[in-house]
């Protein structure tokens, strides 16, 4: 078998790359380890930057997103018994975010690929990448797929990054001393917008997926397990961390999904080797506090699509050669913003009284200075 681009992974990066390449007449095969039902059910990100929405709409896969997505013009920072709105419409006029679950994006992309007769294969075990320097190929289940290029879109735990010979990659990473317990509940959101809450008990986030489904996160110890968090304990802790301002009541409902996500930051440089190009979580991970992970994956794919289109249509490899450099500036901006939001809002070492005062002082500054609030807003909605 032969294809122009062999893609490992059917997450947002792999599926969007396959779709955008198809629109430019470039063939690809997507090889996914999990089942279609699994990847369509996997709950992850929820916030799309304007650039991500524009990309999906322009690519013809944004109809349901425009119908069902929830456009937001601001977020709330809640701390020390105070509530402060970061108003995008005032600080970054014309730019906003849309709340739309990552699994919905994945469903829309899979539907589009299959409708177009795209070659997306699920439950493919033992994918391996070979001969990356010259004539690359993938093997899986006793088969061989010859490719002109391989795209590693297989996430943080995939096989593509480890296929790069030792000594080539420089890795930058930071593990945080806490994790997030994520919860989905069948209850109308108690706030129209997202609430990022910093409390002495720890961070909490009030988000949502629809007018009838809310999404919550709690900062928990790094080794926490969802089994330690029965529903009653989750609601009690969410109330303790969110019901801190007058007039706010957190509505409760049936919890139907819960899981713990580690908080880590990671970047592998360069994001390419020979004819292998890494995109999305295969190359970088951010703590989800800044809602950047999915949006970074989409941004990588936009750059890679242009580079591959130029290569296949003209033979020029210049954009491919500069792919990693083109992505890393945005990657590191998102890394810094995610670190900044995480350190601003989470509770660290309980003995660090000085550090906690610094946090409160910075929050007072961000919520009283238009310049500081604009810094948060323009990074959150996505830099142009
Ligand atoms: P993905 O990990 O989504 O997709 C990679 C795909 O490759 C998967 O389908 C996987 O099954 C497949 N794969 C892996 N190894 C393979 C192999 N050997 N062979 C074939 N296929 C293979 N971001 C946010 O912005 N907000 C959040 O709240 C948030 N929550 C998250 C929660 C969790 C548990 C995780 C892990 C991530 C979260 N993220 C969040 C980040 C997340 O949204 C990623 O940024 C996004 O999924 C990146 O998309 P991909 O790069 O496509 O990687
Ligand atoms: C989500 O709704 O899943 C979400 C929202 C904002 C974040 C992280 C996750 O910063």
Topology:
Layout: E1 2-8, H1 12-23, E2 28-31, H2 36-41, E3 47-49, H3 50-58, H4 63-68, E4 70-72, E5 74-79, E6 82-87, H5 88-91, E7 97-99, H6 102-115, E8 119-121, E9 128-130, E10 137-140, E11 143-152, E12 170-186, E13 194-198, E14 204-210, E15 213-220, H7 231-242, E16 254-269, E17 272-273, E18 276-278, E19 284-285, H8 293-314, H9 318-321, H10 323-345, H11 353-366, H12 370-381
This protein binds arabino-flavin-adenine dinucleotide and P-hydroxybenzoic acid.
Residues 8-14, 31-34, 39, 44-46, 102, 127, 153-155, 157-159, 261, 280-281, 288, 291-294, 297 line the site of arabino-flavin-adenine dinucleotide (FAS).
Outline the structure in words.
The two termini are 40 Å apart. The protein has 2 domains: 5-72 and 96-173 and 264-340, FAD/NAD(P)-binding domain (3-Layer(bba) Sandwich); 175-263 and 347-381, D-Amino Acid Oxidase, subunit A, domain 2 (D-Amino Acid Oxidase, Chain A, domain 2, 2-Layer Sandwich). It contains 12 helices and 19 strands. Helix 1 packs parallel to helix 8 and helix 8 (293-314) packs antiparallel against helix 10. By secondary structure, the protein is of the alpha+beta class. The chain binds arabino-flavin-adenine dinucleotide and P-hydroxybenzoic acid. Arabino-flavin-adenine dinucleotide binds next to helix 1 and helix 8.
């Amino acid at each position: 078998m032969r294809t122009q681009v062999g893609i490992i992974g059917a997450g947002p990066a792999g599926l969007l790359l396959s779709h955008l390449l198809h629109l430019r007449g470039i063939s690809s095969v997507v090889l996914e380890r999990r089942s279609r039902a699994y990847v369509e059910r996997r709950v992850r990100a929820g916030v799309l930057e304007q650039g991500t929405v524009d990309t999906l709409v322009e690519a013809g896969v944004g109809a349901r997103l425009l119908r069902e997505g929830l456009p937001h013009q601001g977020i709330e920072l809640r701390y020390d018994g105070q509530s402060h709105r970061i108003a995008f419409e005032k600080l970054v006029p014309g730019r906003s975010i849309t709340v739309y679950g990552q699994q919905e994006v994945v469903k829309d992309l899979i539907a589009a690929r299959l409708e177009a007769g795209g070659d997306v294969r699920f439950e493919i075990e033992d994918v391996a990448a070979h001969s990356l320097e010259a004539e690359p190929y993938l093997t899986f289940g006793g088969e061989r797929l010859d490719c002109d290029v391989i795209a590693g879109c297989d996430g943080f735990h995939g096989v593509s990054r480890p296929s790069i010979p030792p000594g080539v990659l420089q890795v930058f990473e930071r593990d945080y001393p806490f994790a997030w317990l994520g919860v989905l509940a069948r209850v109308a959101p108690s706030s129209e917008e997202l609430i990022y809450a910093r409390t002495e008990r720890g961070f909490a986030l009030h988000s949502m997926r629809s007018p009838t489904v809310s999404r919550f996160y709690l900062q928990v110890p790094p080794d926490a397990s969802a089994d330690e968090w029965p529903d009653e304990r989750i609601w009690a802790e969410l109330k303790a961390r969110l019901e801190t301002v007058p007039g706010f009541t957190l509505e409760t409902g049936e919890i139907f999904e819960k899981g713990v996500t580690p908080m880590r930051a990671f970047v592998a440089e360069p994001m390419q080797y020979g004819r292998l190009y890494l995109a999305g979580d295969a190359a970088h991970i951010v703590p989800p506090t800044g809602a950047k992970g999915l949006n970074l994956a989409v941004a990588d794919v936009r750059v890679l699509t242009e580079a591959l289109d130029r290569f296949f249509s003209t033979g020029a490899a210049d954009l491919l050669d500069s792919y990693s450099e083109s992505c890393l500036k945005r990657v590191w901006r998102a890394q810094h913003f995610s670190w900044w939001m995480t350190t601003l809002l989470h509770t660290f070492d309980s003995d660090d009284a000085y550090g906690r005062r610094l946090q409160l002082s910075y929050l007072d500054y961000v919520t009283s200075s238009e310049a500081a609030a604009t810094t948060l807003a323009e990074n959150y909605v996505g830099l142009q």
